[in-house]
Amino acid sequence: MAQSVPAVDPALLDDLVAANRILYGKNIVDGLGHVSVRHDKNPNLYVLAAERAPGLVTREDLAIYDLDSNAQTLRERRPYNERFIHGEIYRMRPDVHSVVHCHTPSLVTFCVCKCDLRPLYHMSGFLGRGVSRFEIRECAGMTDMLVSSPPLGVALAKSLGDKQIVLMRGHGATMAGQSVKHAVYRAIYAALNASMQMDAMRMGEVTYLSDEEAMKGMEINDRFIDRSWALWKHEAMGPKQ
Amino acid sequence: MAQSVPAVDPALLDDLVAANRILYGKNIVDGLGHVSVRHDKNPNLYVLAAERAPGLVTREDLAIYDLDSNAQTLRERRPYNERFIHGEIYRMRPDVHSVVHCHTPSLVTFCVCKCDLRPLYHMSGFLGRGVSRFEIRECAGMTDMLVSSPPLGVALAKSLGDKQIVLMRGHGATMAGQSVKHAVYRAIYAALNASMQMDAMRMGEVTYLSDEEAMKGMEINDRFIDRSWALWKHEAMGPKQ
Amino acid sequence: MAQSVPAVDPALLDDLVAANRILYGKNIVDGLGHVSVRHDKNPNLYVLAAERAPGLVTREDLAIYDLDSNAQTLRERRPYNERFIHGEIYRMRPDVHSVVHCHTPSLVTFCVCKCDLRPLYHMSGFLGRGVSRFEIRECAGMTDMLVSSPPLGVALAKSLGDKQIVLMRGHGATMAGQSVKHAVYRAIYAALNASMQMDAMRMGEVTYLSDEEAMKGMEINDRFIDRSWALWKHEAMGPKQ
Amino acid sequence: MAQSVPAVDPALLDDLVAANRILYGKNIVDGLGHVSVRHDKNPNLYVLAAERAPGLVTREDLAIYDLDSNAQTLRERRPYNERFIHGEIYRMRPDVHSVVHCHTPSLVTFCVCKCDLRPLYHMSGFLGRGVSRFEIRECAGMTDMLVSSPPLGVALAKSLGDKQIVLMRGHGATMAGQSVKHAVYRAIYAALNASMQMDAMRMGEVTYLSDEEAMKGMEINDRFIDRSWALWKHEAMGPKQ
Q1: FRET pair for D125, CA 20 to 30 Å: which of A27, B43, C166, C212?
Q2: What is the mean pLDDT of the segment spanning C169-184?
Q3: Burial of D167 per CB tally in 10 Å (0-12, 13-18, 19+)
Q4: CA torsion C86→C91→C92→C93, rounded to 10°?
Q5: How crowded is residue D88: how many other Cβ atoms within 10 Å of its Cβ?
Q6: How are beta strands A132-134 and A165-168 bridged, if at all?
Q7: Cβ C145–D121 below 8 Å, yes or no?
Q8: Which residues of chain D make contact with A125, given a CB cutoff of 8 A?
Q9: Inter-residue contact A100 to A183 (CB < 8 Å)
């Protein structure tokens, strides 16, 4: 109920609106796709827009959900069908504070092929921790491909496991991060790595980052996200925001 | 005659203008290409711009045609040479209420090759109903490739059959939909699927949607078009329209 | 001398400025490249900007040259080094009234490979008349690749022959047209055809337009250039011009 | 110390700000990457922005460093971790007056593959002097890939040798030039050449520039950079700057 829901840090809401706009501006999401953040005061709640294209989301569209993905606020609005992706990952992964779900073309291409998505450079070192795959046929047979129920959300979260990203066959991808900035960063650089890797694989043998390079690359880049974020937010929201 | 033509729902005209601008903004059409809608009060009429680049079309450019593709209004303007594509599809397919014709690069590429265009993900599930092909040589020999006469329009409509899309060799593609929004959606996602499929095919074996997944994906996405449409219209026409 | 040079039709100058901006907006030229038009009152003169990036060219930058490519006006400005491309084609080809020279990436790719550039669809039917190749080594050995002298201009014009386009190895391409609009159109659609053809060739056997289809396609499209031109000019110069 | 640092030519600072914005606008750098210029009055100093995304850099962000990459001004700001790239190249290469470091996708692709980056056309003739490669494993084993210490900067500068560009495995590229304009030009055309070369290599045998053509092409294009620069600066900084 709304009265029991603590107020979210306004800076976090601003970041979530910016994340929606950034992901759209970078062609990570189109009319569909979504990004959420775990509530900063109650880990059993998360913030996600009601059903709307990410490129149009404002603070007024942001609703609060519990981990069963029941809306605690903004109940008069229709929620995203696939909100269970977010709720079930937050339930299974206490370290995750933000989730992005998207249908980015370069990632969809990897979703339907057997090639592994692997880190080409330090910017996508997070891929070195491994990239999970989710085959919805294994848990639900022939479906409309959407993760639109709690059991499907659980199955997806299990597929993600302890990784940062899961490729969903015939659908798209889902990324997890320790903050909105990290989840957005991973979506952008996973897509860019996928695009470069397709080119590289056509040129012969490819030298990927070693596991150690990937881990160290991820650690250093995770500390410099603010530099990129300042640019992205400036572009998506204008100089004043 | 103009006096016998009932007024078209203004919201439909607005959608048709937006469709022209959206298709241009998404690089589905360039200076050429067109989109039409069946008249909401008389199924034997349809609305299509007089000859003009889609990116410049306004409500003042919209004319009404009968199914023989004779202009009922705006007769002082030159009509599109290929308006028969629209008229003959509306005549043969009562379920179709909007038609897009385009020369989108990723689709032209499939038009001149033998690979089947197949659905990679739920967003293009409509491709699972099959993609027709039109070879103008079969009905008319060596031509300028344009569907610029009633018999050619009939031949194209027959090629389309009960499908949602027909690839026209050496020319482009034509999509049909139950509404302007659906036809525009199909044009956008057919082109995107074609582009991704070219990448995927270079990476080895591809897992396409099964027929059942495609059908279910189409059904669910057909119900969520308004989410994308709101974004597209906002971008193409500005926040006020 | 300036006093003997008749005034050029202002509409032609406007079109030439627009052509510069359109070619830049469409990524056909970058900081380099140029477009000219034959003088409408004296076929032994042509109009070409003094040295400046096409994207910045205004009417004040337009100079008049004779067919030896000596400036007749605006002599205080430095001319393009490669103006001889224009002068020598105008001398050898009375049917040509406009010339575009560019380094467009998709065309440069064909320039350095052995694959023929062939028409995939009616929009590029003009390629069916054949695409010439210019190998500067054959007439001048090891050079800086530029057509920066009258003899090199003559050699290039001879390579073009009676075609509409010549691919220059290690350099770029030059297109000829019966008007500014036609030359610009050919540059845009040659580049687009090149890009699509690269994709198509990777997908197996390609069905190109037959010679007759190409010729008929060219004839019909040459008559509809105004539709595209209105759009391109609107975009490049704003709604008022 | 600040009092011993001579003032930099304001035009040079303007160019450096423009270079940051141009490189961002051309997708050579993203949130990361940087560009520097050697001090015009003291060759043992150079100018580089403090830590900030290049697309946001203003004159207020520009700091002065000595060749050990210690900040001489703006010490309250955090410097780029990889400033040693700049300092050590300036120390080893007196002819170099500007350095660009970037993670451009088409160049990263070449970095992780074994194909040589070679000049396809005169615009990238500078590649004919050779393209170095830097494998950080050879001097430092498994790292986070960053050139974030003086010894790594020395190793990179040694890899660059007397070339204009070095490809850094799993990381990006670094370009050197005799001026800011030349370094920016090389970054832009190295990336464009890489992209075209990937396409060309898929089409069969490629004719690259000969060494002599490349050298002559570089010489002529080095003299015409102002034409492109005027366009780039206009686009990046607006018509007034």
Answers
A1: C166
A2: 98
A3: buried
A4: 80
A5: 25
A6: parallel
A7: yes
A8: 144-145
A9: yes
